[in-house]
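Complex record, two chains
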Amino acid sequence: MTSDQRVDVRKTYKLFIGGAFPRSESGRSYPVTGAEGGFLANAARASRKDVRDAVVAARKAFPGWSARTPYNRGQILYRIAEMLEGRRAQFVAELRDAGLGKGAAGAEVDAAVDRWVWYAGWADKLAAVAGNANPVAGPFFTFSTPEPTGVVGSVAPDGPLLDLVSALAPVIVSGNTAVVVASEPAPLPAITFAEVLATSDLPGGVVNLLTGRRAELAPWLAGHMDVNALDLTGVAETDVKPLAEAAAGNLKRVFRDPVRADAEDPGTARMQAFLEIKTVWHPVGV
Amino acid sequence: MDLFAYAPAPESRDVVDIRPSYGLFVDGAFTDGGGEPFKTVEPATGEALAEVASADAADVDRAVAAARRAYETVWGPMSGRDRAKYLFRIARILQERSRELAVLESIDNGKPIRESRDVDLPLVAAHFFYHAGWADKLGHAGFGADPRPLGVAAQVIPWNFPLLMLAWKIAPALACGNTVVLKPAETTPLTALAFADVCRQADLPPGVVNIITGAGETGRLLVAHDGVDKVAFTGSTDVGREIARTVAGTRRRLTLELGGKAANIVFDDAPLDQAVEGVVNGIFFNQGHVCCAGSRLLVQETVADEFLERLKARMATLRVGDPLDKNTDVGAINSAAQLARIADLAEAGEREGAERWSPPCDLPGRGYWFAPTLFTGVAQSHRIAREEIFGPVLSALTFRTPQEAVEKANNTPYGLSAGVWSEKGSRTLWVAERLRAGVVWANTFNKFDPAAPFGGYKESGHGREGGRHGLEAYLDI
């Protein structure tokens, strides 16, 4: 047999946990198909145990990431945008595989990069906007300042890239760490995005990406006692109630973004949803 | 024996007029309730003070409907400037009637008059005065140019600061343009009902504030009601969880201010006498019925012996007794049920191996009382180090390094408040940064102000009350 056509080397799509790319501990995968129904790749089908491992990794990364200076977090987020831009062609190709037209795929990648840059700039401004000194009636200096709420579990919507970016950036910019269940029908760009994260000086564990069945994974995330907040933007209306009920077990903050990911200005609500306000008092005197 | 003998200095009860029975305040008028009436008891004597109506499902419907009507016809359309004027009026009337309300609070709740007079009532009036000023300035609060109210707020409050918690709930809700249905705790309904009269004196439009009394079932009906847009609750974490489940998946917004197990951290460079005062205030203020009470003392090992000795000497001077006596430091436990819970946890502390100490202390022969209690040799695994006791019981632990102090302080599902005592500014800020708690008091404790946000991390709740941040809970953003 002769051929001048090279046989390409294909990628194994795995999970992204603690800065590494493991397969699902369950050994399961599911076939991802393109718009025409053709086979694209097998994606890892994460399990309950993978959710738990991801939460452990996110918790471990939280003290370090939240203690970074906002300036440093902003620089790392900007670096992520640089890496994303550098892989523009690859993402456009993957989005086209996922069914987007040529123009739409290019526009989505551009929007994702621009959004990421927008959030990067927020890192060292959020506290100025969301915090203030409190003019109390007594000899005290009192100030209130925003802090990250902790480990945030997100169920991302179906969109392959911009939805993911819109779920992730507002969570980690303030110092939270994240466990994200990626788009179920189009998970491949999410794993490629994890490769961007892995090469951007983002500490391992700050972002953990799982692919698989949303309905299988979301309840474990919602009921996990070491997750502080839950983003249900990617969950169907009818599934919100049981997940929010499970989240009540440790009083997670539950958020569901009514703003469409393609909105011109995403606003600050999504960042503020994963903040805690800390008020500090100290006496004033000689 | 007392170092000084104190003559009794009772505050006169003449300023209050407790009626034999009270109804529900719905749509501007007092009405009967459909439920079985209950009695509110004076904790200092154990005797019934008055019979109070209990709201059933139909009453809750009625109250929510009145609030909805008032929201749609009067309070919603009203300009912020006019809402402000009503709130200023209420603030002034509260100041005018502050002695009456303070005495009534001490009678119904059991807290010392010195506290209801000097802490609760001034803060109650200040809360209304502060939020009155926001009513016509909401567009400047950072939540958009013209933030809208949510609608009808269902509010359920606890018995530890009955009127102050009412103020924390009602003042921001009204300032932001919402109307309210509020349920006070069943053991302390009287000042909320007196507040209904304050609303009438202020000519507040009927239905803007509705007060319904009852037990847990009334509260459950209220927070589960389809006609409310907002649920605000202050109380135990267990009930908070139940409410979060009830509200899950609905359009109702939720804020929760729940339990705590705050660490009060004393470093070896702290001004020890001041720290002793702060620790005493942190746990014995309001009989320890405080969600943000400094119930875990973390004292650095090098000064632990000296500090605990001074603490015991100070505790021996606390005067426990008649809440209406102006010399009283620690009043009555609010109810027999709460007393039983405190006693149960204190016994668990002994059983689990901690050392229990209380100063010699004559407790009155009737009513509900618990002597100020210190546990030493407490391990983090002990129930008294983990569970909220909500009583005058302090659990003392030690630490060696700042890292260890922070780790122990954060080793709890709660995250409401914390205290730090040190003269080293950089260390104080380093610790304050790392404490996972919504309020950190440095070289002070239990300070509250309407201009300063208050609320918890983790299982201590969602949202903040007070300050600019507190407005968010009552705006549609």
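Note: Strands of chain A lie at 29-33, 39-44, 132-133, 140-148, 151-155, 177-181, 207-210, 229-231, 253-255, 275-283.
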